Amino acid sequence: MNHINRIIAAAGAVGLSDGMLRAVLPLLAATVTLDPAAVAATTLFFSIPWLIVSIPFGPLVDRFDPVTMMRIINLTRFAGIGLLVGAVLMGDAGLPLLYVGAFVLGSAETLYEICAQVVVPRYVDKEDLPRKNGHLFGVTTSMGGFIGPAVGGLLVGLSAVWAVSASAVGYLAGVFILLSITTTAPTVPAARPRFLPQIREGFRYLVRDRSLLWLALIGGAATVCWYAWTAIFVLAVVDPGMLGLEPAAYGVFLAVLAAGSVTGSLVTGWLRKRISMRTLLVLSLLGWAVWFVAPGITANVYLVGVALFIGGFSGVTWNVLTVTLRQSTVPRELLGRVTAVYRTITRGGRPVGALLGGVVASAIGLQGTFVAVGVVAGLLTIPLAVTIRREAG
Asked: Where does the chain cross the membrane (predicted)?
């Protein structure tokens, strides 16, 4: 097994644990407290690191070998699981410890994702980046978005403590897989610059590169639409919503979305060899528009399912292409910082979208909100087509 396949295998092990943890974390919080706000705060502490620690992490990834950092991160995650278990054993008194554990694990996930995107071009030829990025996204999507949550849900039937403890296994497996990889020394100047100037350098590069800047801004806007849709979709699925189905149907729809993502990850590399980067990006956004608008214009379960499959396919295609473009064009010594700034912009759309989804739906209803976010996603293709001219490779 070559180095990049080992990186993908490690991503699969880690993705499995991430998926289990996301499914179990709210249930774990509920064993400590029944206060809804306190339970929701656990998810907040897990997700907030993307907004507050992502950018400072960028220079670290550029300074040090990312594979070595990924090993250390997985060991940190392994220890973080211990904090969560300790919090449960302490009962109500363990709530602060639970928040600390969630923040540590969320920070580790943030840094790991940046490292994973930086390390790929060190072991993959430029022309093969779309295919290998597709494999990486396919593994992480299937493990983290489908298999991991399913396994976590099954283990919760035994005990929330057992379920969260089991998630530590994937992190430890990731460490051992990464230990088999020969590391590469980072390219850094002999006189190492100070931290803040390095962060500013990452900002300046992204601002000057108009294609990447527009991709970040458009991606952030699309993410707002995505999370606005996600925040209310369950209300459309479950009776008395428009689709009028049982709660289990919501999980089926999410599985269809994941299936579309995995399919997209397998064929994006093939499509990239035959279709221009800009055309594929525009088609991806149109796919998102179809996905978002479907529940607003039809109550046909099968049509909504097809739209979700298209959305999952389009989403991973967008991710593979934009990551490949950064890897192909940003200098290696800046990739960590630029990726951190870029991802902060796109990930910042998540809490904004979740908030707007509820507010807009209260004002104009569920169907109107689905149509609105779909139209906005479709309109984003206009600045995309006008501004994104440079090709990768």
From this structure: 39-60, 72-91, 97-124, 136-162, 168-191, 212-236, 248-267, 279-297, 303-325, 345-364
How far apart are alpha carbons 236 and 296 in whole angstroms? 9
CA diameter of the chain:
65
Rg of the chain (C-alpha set)? 21
Give the C-alpha separation, 296 to 365, whole Å.
10
Name every residue whose Cβ is closer than 8 Å to that of residue 166 and which is 6 or more positions away in sequence. 20, 151, 155
Show the domains of the chain with their CATH numbers.
Answer: 3-186 (1.20.1250.20), 197-387 (1.20.1250.20)
For residue 92, give Cα distances in angstroms to 34, 88, 104, 205: 10, 8, 20, 47
What length is written for the chain? 393
pLDDT tens digit sequence for 123-142: 888 888 988 999 998 898 88
- Per-residue pLDDT, 392: 40
- 84 versus 88: the higher-pLDDT residue is 84
| 88-97: Cβ within 8 A, 24+ apart | 88/28, 88/31, 88/32, 88/160, 88/161, 88/164, 89/161, 91/32, 92/32, 92/33, 94/32, 95/32, 95/33, 95/38
Q: How much is the pLDDT for 389?
A: 60
Global confidence as pTM: 0.83
Two structure tokens written together for 30:
């509920």
pLDDT at 189: 54
Handedness of CA 140, 145, 151, 152 (dihedral sign): positive
The Cα–Cα gap between 223 and 215 comes to 12
Non-local (6+) Cβ contacts of 152 within 8 A are 19, 20, 21, 22, 23, 24, 163, 167
Tell me the pLDDT tens digit for each residue of 205-264: 999 998 899 999 999 999 999 988 988 888 888 888 888 888 778 878 888 888 899 899
Ramachandran class of 244: left when φ > 0, alpha when ψ lies in -120 to 50, beta otherwise: left
Contact yes or no for 131/327 (Cβ under 8 A): no
DSSP, residue by residue, 119-185: HHHHHS-GGGHHHHHHHHHHHHHHIIIIIHHHHHHHHHTT-HHHHHHHHHHHHHHHHHHHHTSPP--
263-282: pLDDT as tens digits:
999 999 899 989 988 899 99
> Is 166 within 8 Å of 81 (Cβ atoms)?
no
